[in-house]
């Protein structure tokens, strides 16, 4: 019962991760050209989308370690790479301050792609 709920939650939350990071990436890329889109809300939305990745990975770890669910190794790999990629983006924010919207725009789309790829190897 608990396992089925967690599997369904993990599958549903994957869409939150994919769509959220895709939207954040597109918003940041549009903000690159349209200064009116450079709002504090963009950064809050981006942070929430990236935190959603962490929630997704935690759900996955609970399923694999706590519930004994078996998954492809590449599925787990993409989740951990997404966390690392988000951390790298965050660490480069000062170095690339003059290209911050490009960094987070392309980074958000990359994170979206990792989420899609993780779903394809289940």
pLDDT < 50 runs, ≥5 residues: none
Taken from the alpha-carbon principal axes, the silhouette is: elongated
Count of helix runs: 4
Strand proportion: under 5%
- The first-to-last residue Cα distance is 21 Å
Biggest sheet features: none
Query: What integer is the average pLDDT?
Result: 95
| Backbone structural class | mainly alpha
The number of E-state strands comes to 0
Alpha-carbon Rg, integer? 15 Å
Helix content: over 70%
- Tally of domains: 1
Summarize the helix and strand pattern as letters.
HHHH
Output the keywords.
single chain, 122 residues, mainly alpha, 81% helix, 0% strand
Descriptive account of the structure:
The chain is mostly helical. The chain has one domain. Helix content is about 80%, strand content about 0%. The chain has helices at about 1-35, 40-65, 75-90, 100-120. The two termini are about 20 Å apart.
Topology:
Elements: H1 2-33, H2 40-66, H3 73-91, H4 100-120
């Amino acid at each position: 019962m608990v396992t089925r709920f967690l599997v369904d939650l993990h599958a549903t939350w994957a869409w939150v991760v994919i769509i959220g990071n895709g939207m954040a990436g597109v918003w940041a890329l549009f903000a690159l050209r349209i200064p009116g889109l450079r709002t504090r809300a963009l950064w809050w939305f981006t942070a929430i989308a990236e935190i959603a990745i962490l929630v997704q990975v935690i759900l996955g770890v609970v399923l694999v370690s706590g519930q004994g669910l078996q998954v492809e190794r590449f599925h787990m790999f993409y989740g951990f790479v997404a966390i690392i990629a988000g951390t790298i983006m965050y660490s480069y924010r000062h170095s690339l301050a003059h290209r911050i919207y490009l960094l987070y725009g392309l980074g958000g789309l990359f994170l979206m792609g990792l989420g899609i790829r993780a779903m394809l190897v289940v």
